[in-house]
Amino acid sequence: MAPIKGATKSKRLKWGDLNDKNNTNWIQNNLSWTFQKMFREGNDTRKVYDINPYVEVYRYTDNMYGLWNPSLGSGGDVWQYLIIGPEKAMLIDTAFGLGNQKGLVSQLTGNMPVIVVNTHLGSDHSLGNVLWDKVYCHEYEVDNIKTVVKPGAWDRFNNDYVEYDLKDLPQYKDYELIGVPDGHIFNLGGDYDIELFWTAGHAAGHAMFIDKKGRNLIAGDDVISDRIGCGGGPKKGMFYQEYCNLTSYRDRLKILVTRLDEFDYVFSGHFANNLENSVLLNILEALNDVIEDPKRYTYIEESISNTGEKSVAYYKQVKGLGRIRYSENGVYPSYA
Amino acid sequence: MKTNRRNFLQHVGAGAAGLTLASPLVFSAPAAPGTEVCSKNPPPVVPVKRNSQMWPIKSGLKSKRIKFDVPQNQISWAFMKELREHNKTRKIYPANPYVEVYQFRDNLYGLFTENCDGMGDVWMYLIIGPEKVMLIDTAYGLGDLKGLVDEITGGKPIVVVNTHEHYDHAYGNCRFEKVYCHEYLVPYLNNQNEHMWDYLFDAFGNNIWLEFDRNDLPKFKKYEIVGVKDGHRFNLGGDYEVELVFTGGHAAGHAAYLDKKGRNLFTGDNICSDVSGCGSVNIVKPGPYGENTSLKAYRDNVQRLVNRMGEYDYIFPQHFMNDLENNLMPKILDACDAILANPEKPDYTIETWGKNATEPAVRYFKFIKDFSVIAYGYKKA
Question: Which CATH superfamily is domain B5-333 in?
Fold first, then answer.
């Protein structure tokens, strides 16, 4: 992870504590880092707008942008996606909310009305919600996002991993968070529909968004070229935590792959994107293999916490992509 | 990558990645002198289906993909799509419309060309030193490769080297007067002849995998092949040295090239973001020095490259993803060691049936952490 020549106002200081053997967050895989270096340093559509110097804007198609945001911690840098329909635009995820996100979106869309949605509760995907008046998500994720996006949520950020102006972080404000069921259609004008597809896995109410007109799938953190954390198991305090496992995700993915003719490319929440839709079949194959026998991992990583507690993370390689990470209690639903 | 023609034959009519044509794929390339052409029986019309992978990448190249052999993996394809469609340094020179030129460093260019057969598209690399330039590999030689290099470099003297002898890396050698390689590669390069491109065309003279003008292939001529030993240093002027590092593995005389000044390592086909075919456990390839295609021999050479990681920062393979960080090398060593410790326990296997085979051929695969996969040959006792 040698520095990538970025164009934003932020500056990466470190990815993690190199002396801490238990901190593996900072190590991103060779595939993802190489992809990001090639992409960010070479892409001829890259642009940083004065209105928000923390975001690199990439144009994928005539009506779709990728908004690259630096991670403010040790996790991977984050993608937001902006789809411009005939009458409205859709912003998928709000990152940490650093800088003038709303102004940037207004500039890109020509002041169109914007439908803002979340893939899941992750702070790197949802803290910018407070910049908007109304945000949509899957109905299972409403209460989970509320546990993340709350007063004081930004207090932990202090330039330890990334250098930026702390004044550019947002202040908490109330906003409307609206849960919708699986299959909900958002209309961007005319026949431009985007469907929320509930996937579970990485988070209880994790959702993907199918842009039927643009033929793209915005996949959040359930498709990642590095580590797909879709089998973490029940998380303390999380609502609908019984869905944070490989089986729940697999069951949803089985349905999604029957719809591969509705989209061509897959856009992830981090790292490599614009992946061909067949990559979902490879993830499904890996999930099925582990669900059939959880011992069919590719490798394991053991770590000991500061309190001396030993934990084991299991990894299953996905052909042509990254790896699935799961825990012992993250393979099957807790209600099973 | 080397095309397994038998494998390809199983795939005939199975798809045509890269095209969504509804019309039959019949290209009327002129037949080479001496090639028997039957005009009475044109090839049957095979309906073309869209493959589930490897959809067309927008390109300004003169060549057009008809079909691929085995599918390439998603991350490699996504990387190449992004690089080829949006890299701001991409340039196609009139001197050679079959090559996309990318500038990776001030003095390092990647020359991308489509594979003339059904396997992965190919990188050549061009390093510009103070007085001379080095061209690593020559692909199929499609188009005026020397003219292109001269245009980029301003006509500096060219040191041409090969990583290995396979079609997609060394068939353009005859466009140059002299080519260097590891000494074990010499007997393989000596086998080159005027018919070596024939397999790219069917019995009717039509291009099989890639549409291009047959007249743009080189006219074969003998050239000087100079074998050198492991550790040989090529001087590009001043203190700019590039060292040949023998690796074996993918081919008996396979070599990597270490650009000490540029701090890059060019690894040929031993490292690949799709499938790294870098040796067999207990199957010896026929041919001179075939023992160097053993995974153990390759593993020991990887160990040497791990020991020298202080001399290079980035790795440039000859296919797909490149500019990889050097910390990949120990992970490859780990994967080799894991295979050698327990070759019967791959991460997965793929069975293929040859045309007249009575039993399947099994290929073994082991993942490289954070990267792709090693494919290795292994025969159970």
Answer: Ribonuclease Z/Hydroxyacylglutathione hydrolase-like (3.60.15.10)
